Amino acid sequence: xxxxxxxxxxxxxxxxxxxxxxxxxxxxxxxxxxxxxxxxxxxxxxxxxxxxxxxxxxxxxxxxxxxxxxxxxxxxxxxxxxxxxxxxxxxxxxxxxxxxxxxxxxxxxxxxxxxxxxxxxxxxxxxxxxxxxxxxxxxxxxxxxxxxxxxxxxxxxxxxxxxxxxxxxxxxxxxxxxxxxxxxxxxxxxxxxxxxxxxxxxxxxxxxxxxxxxxxxxxxxxxxxxxxxxxxxxxxxxxxxxxxxxxxxxxxxxxxxxxxxxxxxxxxxxxxxxxxxxxxxxxxxxxxxxxxxxxxxxxxxxxxxxxxxxxxxxxxxxxxxxxxxxxxxxxxxxxxxxxxxxxxxxxxxxxxxxxxxxxxxxxxxxxxxxxxxxxxxxxxxxxxxxxxxxxxxxxxxxxxxxxx
Length: 404
Known about the structure:
Strand 5 (94-100) and strand 6 form a beta hairpin. The longest helix is centred in the last third of the chain and has 25 residues, at 316-340. Helices cover 39% and strands 20% of the residues. It contains twelve helices and 15 strands. It starts with a helix and ends with a helix. The strands form four sheets. It has a five-stranded mixed sheet with strand order 6-5-4-7-10. It has a five-stranded mixed sheet with strand order 13-12-11-14-15, with helices on both faces. Strands 1-3-2 form a three-stranded antiparallel sheet. By secondary structure, the chain is of the alpha/beta class. The chain has helices at 2-23, 30-36, 41-53, 120-138, 178-185, 197-208, 268-272, 274-283, 304-312, 316-340, 356-369, 389-403, and strands at residues 28-29, 57-62, 74-78, 84-90, 94-100, 106-113, 145-152, 155-157, 162-165, 192-196, 217-222, 226-232, 235-236, 344-349, 379-382. Helix 9 (304-312) crosses helix 10 and helix 10 crosses helix 11.
């Protein structure tokens, strides 16, 4: 019995190894595969036939015969259309959904508007409708859907698929069984994953973004609020109470800091929020009436891009505002480095548009204020994935779990 079990495990390992090679290769023959792994051609053909039956591998043609002649060998290729993943993220003002193939390539995308504090049953209906529309519009066989991942905004119990609390949707109340409700509304019997959307955004950076192949990364999603995703030793970290990543409520200025939406004073989120920056700019209008931040217009009409664009031209007021927010970002990031010691911190969200002055001076400041005698090589980079990062990460997570 033990021998049979061992053989089964070895077979599974061999299959997984070969599939990993195929996923990262173009077209390849069994002869080429045999040079990469210590397996006989007979064993390799058995594995190929197994995956052909699963529609994960296809024969694309014939290769060149050997010098000795004989039959031309088959050429094999991973079939990216052997399955499809759906990723959906619930934002404060919209529902964004994508469907991807097994390489994580987006085939279709849907964006649906959400009202402020939209009621749960309406959001659920829009989510289920988006899921069905993606599949129908892409003309995909529903049997090939391998899973659905939904990113939420708020504290989320990943194990149970429960949204403990979402600050954008107070009308939902607490402990909303999102996963259960979705599974009852869709006919497809597929794996469903529900997690804080920030974690899927971190996963996207690791699998297809600037932090690709890094083991330890932290993402910071900053704007009106601030959230984080943490991956350590290649695993998404959530914590005992699913609070890992709630760094926005880390206190960094308890004496004179702004009051945060959570009720605390001087939270990281409150000190770097775009709202605070804009308010500071308005308060300084009398001192800097000719600043490019105001562009000769009404100070009440400026937005965060007014500050970013003016800082790129080294406007005095804009640089004063950016220097202030750099200081608070540096304190928060320094604490994050001490907590997690990541290889890379990736900045996502609206601050990606803050420009070179912001990120270059942020890197300098971080190295100055935290254990300056210890050389820290944590890279701080802007994300390059744009607004698709959350849904791409959600779909990629489904694919990752499928191949496990």
